[in-house]
Write a structure and sequence with these properties.
Pfam families: FCD, GntR
Largest sheet: 2 strands, antiparallel
Order of helices and strands: HHHEEHHHHHHHHH
Radius of gyration: 22 Å
InterPro entries: GntR_C, TF_FadR/GntR_C, Tscrpt_reg_HTH_GntR, WH-like_DNA-bd_sf, WH_DNA-bd_sf
Number of helices: 12
Protein name: FadR/GntR family transcriptional regulator
Keywords: DNA-binding, Transcription, Transcription regulation
Strand content: under 5%
């Protein structure tokens, strides 16, 4: 395992130093192993590990390439890891989301277009007066993703996407058990949209905080 770790570090070093850039094809296995002073087997294991976390792209019959290294691609691994959380750590994920998402919402205030705001409004209207919990959760995910994307920060967007897994379960549970949870969620969404339309970053930040904190507070009382 230590040999494989060494191989991973050496390939990482080539990418970080710029010797290999996004989209570059790696040298042939025999050549790269010789250049790095590695066995072909340890190099192969390192390539396999780096392909799992989307650093490398192994194309059958074509070779191995450095991926685009786009934040959204690299942070897909976060979603996978987050799915293994324990139920008692959901609150910790929500706490992180409560720090990041209001900041992203405030950033979006100056950038979000009227067309995007209209689309989010229409999305809420389409739910109707009595949506199912599943419909509301799907809308909630799309609603916040649309706002965070408007922040213009792809890393922030990818991080929050990755944190949505455990919080989705909490929102479903809340919707099934808490009185007026659906109506409250919609009212908070409308308040966030109104603040964004007014280009009031602090109000948008505050409503986003209230929205996430309400789920967190409820969940804390039930665990």
């Amino acid at each position: 395992m230590a040999v494989t770790d060494e191989a991973i570090e050496k390939i990482k070093g080539m990418i970080v130093s710029g010797a290999l850039r996004p989209g570059d094809r790696l040298p042939k296995e025999s050549e790269l192993a010789a250049e790095l002073g590695l066995s072909r087997n340890s190099l192969r294991e390192a390539v396999r590990a780096l392909s799992l976390i989307r650093i490398l792209d192994v194309r059958q019959g074509d070779g191995t390439y450095v991926t685009s290294l786009d934040p959204q691609l690299l942070l897909e691994a976060l979603s996978f890891v987050v799915d293994f959380h324990r139920d008692d750590t959901v609150l910790e994920f929500l706490a992180v989301r409560r720090i990041l998402e209001p900041a992203a919402t405030a950033l979006a205030c100056a950038r979000i277009s009227d067309a995007t705001l209209d689309a989010l409004d229409s999305q809420l209207d389409a739910l109707g007066p009595e949506p199912s919990v599943e419909e509301l959760v799907d809308c909630d995910l799309d609603f916040h993703r649309g706002i965070v994307q408007a922040s213009g920060n792809s890393v922030l967007c990818s991080l929050l996407d990755g944190l949505s897994g455990p919080t989705t379960r909490a929102r479903v549970w809340r919707g099934l058990t808490q009185e007026d949870a659906l109506g409250r969620t919609l009212r908070e969404h409308r308040a966030i949209l109104a603040a964004l339309r007014d280009r009031d970053a602090e109000a948008a930040r505050s409503w986003a905080t209230v929205h996430i904190a309400s789920v967190e507070q409820w969940l804390r009382s039930t665990l």
